[in-house]
Amino acid sequence: MAKSIKAGKPVEAATPRRKAPTDEPDRTDGLALQDDGVDAAGRPMPVFPDPPAIDRHGPAWVLAMCNQKGGVGKTTSTINLGAALAEWGRRVLLVDFDPQGALSVGLGVNPHDLDRTVYNVLIEHDVAVDDVLLKTNTPGMDLLPSNIDLSAAEIQLVNEVAREQVLATALAPVLPDYDIVLIDCQPSLGLLTVNALTAAAGVIIPLECEFFALRGVALLMQTIDKVRARLNPRLEVEGILATMFDPRTLHSREVLARVTEAFGDRVFHTVIGRTVRFPETTVVGEPITTYASSSAGARAYRELAKEVLAR
Ligand code: ADP
Ligand code: MG
């Protein structure tokens, strides 16, 4: 049975759980990111249907949130896409696959207090995902937490047989229990990320709308191609997600135009605006969908959830 995060020690910063949102206006609120039937890149905006209710769950669709660049919105997107999918009645498992443990912190868990994490699942053959799972405060969304211990796994797995398949093998028994598994990758293309790409059916690539966004994406695509050719033939790039978009700056719009020029239909119509609400959610340890439920950021991730389910 999964423990609940409430039962564990919350992170200190999370103590005043219902801290009021800052007085700073949400600058993307009221700004049309997708208006008049066109998306932020000027493409025709399809209407994504509300996902149908489901009464049976699984087997899970596994998606890796991947970009070897840090600070592009992987962890933020994992938490908030997960929470939005859970709002649509989907059973969601979030896998923290970064030794920094930012996903765990962002959901109110203090990673240093954990005896066992995803690390133990990978390395100790008698530890199962079910032994380590935590229930989050978002109904229907569970967390496989991580902490700095995971940084040792990269080296320890090198001599393991089928070292790229360790995560896939560990997740297999719980896939019938979930509709979606989101793996929050660390900012590198090392063995842990290759494990995530081997366990996944799809990749979502968050890209920050700033000048060097496209740097490194070619290398990421090559890595995905190699994993597909050698380890996981069903792996697909599900979509590229533009994050931290500021519709008022020409720069943001130019970067988005370049990204859609380069990747066409693979770029999600939904873009995530830049707003201070996201850093705030990390402090309180909860998704934006509950922290600022009607904010532009919450609405964007709900829209993304619909777009992902429509693919
Ligand atoms: P990654 O996991 O790729 O390293 P994070 O999701 O941790 O990136 O985001 C990096 C930082 O940017 C965090 O402080 C986060 O709160 C902030 N951030 C993420 N998305 C946005 C956004 N749309 N607008 C403003 N800040 C954001
Ligand atoms: Mg991260």
Describe the protein.
The protein is an alpha/beta fold. The protein has one domain (3-13, 20-310): P-loop containing nucleotide triphosphate hydrolases (Rossmann fold, 3-Layer(aba) Sandwich), CATH 3.40.50.300. Helix content is 34%, strand content 13%. The chain is globular, with a radius of gyration of 18 Å. Magnesium ion binds at residues 74-75, 98, 102, 184.
Beta-strand fraction estimate: 5-15%
Low-pLDDT windows of residues: 7-20
User: End-to-end span in angstroms?
Assistant: 32 Å
The geometry reads as globular
CATH A-level architecture: 3-Layer(aba) Sandwich
For the biggest β-sheet, the strand order reads 1-4-5-3-6-2-7-8
Number of helices: 12
- Quantity of strands, as a count: 8
For the record, what is the CATH homologous superfamily label? P-loop containing nucleotide triphosphate hydrolases
Query: How many domains make up the 3D coordinates?
Result: 1
Radius of gyration: 18 Å
Q: What are the distinct ligands in this entry?
A: adenosine-5'-diphosphate, magnesium ion
Name some characteristics of this structure.
Rossmann fold; 311 residues; binds magnesium ion; binds adenosine-5'-diphosphate
Give me a quick take on this structure:
The two termini are about 30 Å apart. Helix content is about 35%, strand content about 15%.
What does the secondary structure layout of this molecule look like, with pairings?
Layout: E1 3-4, E2 61-65, H1 74-87, E3 92-97, H2 102-106, H3 118-123, H4 129-132, E4 134-135, E5 141-144, H5 150-156, H6 166-171, E6 180-185, H7 191-199, E7 202-208, H8 217-230, E8 236-243, H9 250-263, H10 277-284, H11 288-291, H12 296-310
Parallel strand pairs: 1-4, 2-6, 2-7, 3-5, 3-6, 7-8
Antiparallel strand pairs: 4-5
Helix pairs in contact: 1-12
Bound molecules: adenosine-5'-diphosphate and magnesium ion (MG).
Magnesium ion binds at residues 74-75, 98, 102, 184.
